[in-house]
Design a protein that fits this description.
This protein is an alpha+beta fold. It contains five helices and 23 strands. It binds zinc ion (ZN) (2 copies).
Length: 337
Amino acid sequence: MKCIKCGKHEAVEKGLCETCLWDSMNIELPGSIIEKTCPKCGAYFVGKGWVHKDGQQRWEHKIIEDFAVNEPFKIIGGEILGKNKQGNYITIKITVQREENDIKEENFDIPFVKESISCPTCNKVTGSYYEAKSQIRGMTGEITNEMERIAKILINMVDNNHKNDPESFISKIEYVKDGFDIYLGKRKDGDTFAKDMKTREICDIIVSKTLAGIRDGKQFFRFTYLVRVLDFQPGAIIFLNNKKYLYQGKSSYGIYLNDLDNGREVQINKKAINFEKILATGEFASKRTFIVISRENDECNLMDKENFNQITIKGDCKDNEISLFVLGDELFRIRGE
Ligand SMILES: [Zn+2]
Ligand SMILES: [Zn+2]
């Protein structure tokens, strides 16, 4: 059968020859192309929303999707070739397929607009938006290295989450007299951090919420995660369940103490610590160095470097000198030494 249009060539589809068929192709173009990006984070506006990951790729993909073609053709690809000098036109190559081995490419110049506008996420950051607050506090009312270490864990965690989720951010860090208040863009970060601290560290966590307003017709709450870090210095004298102890240190298991009534070493599992019943007395044992003068069986004879008094302690002494905690007349071996 000959082509119904030109009558010259053999018809291949819809009564038309290949040439006349391609002549019937009609590509529908987008009216204009807008490249809307955020100058702060580089996010792209694609379709109906902001895209923070692979924004440019997704935007380019969407441009090609906005081209349409009549049957029996199919758009199988496209490419941005560039912009004109004035930057008000963009050239796009569109690849159209009729049959597997019948493919054509065509270039189009489309009106182009570039817009730069801060995205809602960046507006949240600059507007000091926050959903949660993590208050890091210690046991003594003073800022300690231990509290700084814990604060850094939270800051690193949020920085890491931010890579995949721009809504994870810290909008403010406040240094207060007895600790840090870290304001979080995303409530979930506060929650994750609190759970992580509970399993990995020795601390007490109190969660509270306050009504912050109405958003989208619903009550909107802000959460506070009070993280009280057990940050006594080794040698501190503490009260635990109304008894006095010398604090030796902590591990992932719990805390190590000396009972000041009898000098005995006590280990307390972290799950058994009641933070309502533990507090600093403000007193400290001093640390003094002794020279080991002799070793016998399971005892060592020591000499105080300050006053040359000689004493005997139980246990082995590996080095030629040893440090002990001194509290009044009492001496305590330092855990791990
Ligand atoms: Zn024809
Ligand atoms: Zn942004």
